[in-house]
Amino acid sequence: MDQENNRKPVHARATDGDYPAKTFTAEELTAFGIALLTSAGTSAEEAQAVTNELVAADAAGHPSHGIMRLIQYVNFIEIDLIRPGARLKIVSESTGVDVFDGEFGLGQFLMREFLDIAYRKAREHGSYTAFARHFNHIGRLGSYAEDAARNGFLAMMMVNVNGASRVAPYGAAEPRLGTNPICIAMPNGDDWPVMVDTATCVTAEGKVRIAMQNGMPLPDGQIIDQDGN
Known about the structure:
By secondary structure, the chain is of the alpha+beta class.
């Protein structure tokens, strides 16, 4: 994100009562995010990678994957679900196909390291497939697929959210599935790659979270009660 974008107001949170909504620049949010994460025990490098992704999501109009995730990450660090300092580990390696373990590190930080490897190996072998586990929340999947497309690759990325079942199968009353996002991106010959980034459910979990935080209603059909209504 360049300095000009850093000065633009990118995030506003609605509030109730006597407290007005506040708008922050990307630069302000970045400084806040880095300070908060490092105080929770991350390195400055980890905090920068995570915060850059969150602020970019807000700037792109996706607050569901933006700075509001910071509190979640800090809470996860406190209960050892996120382990600062963890590094990407190659579990198995073969021609054009690798398996990685993130060892429960910070997802955005691990993803940037992973992409560097993926680009190098895709250029070397012509195509590249990787499987990764224990990455934690990585933020907006489309950010990484878009980056791959801008680097000249056709990318297909999928996330298996098996640790947080929040999606009820059609007609059911209880959650059994994850949101399991899928993203496909490809170069388009100009500044904007062709990309589809979607959850495999009616809406992203983060959008429900945003609505709850701000006391906003959701469209019909997006959530159900304990009776399946």
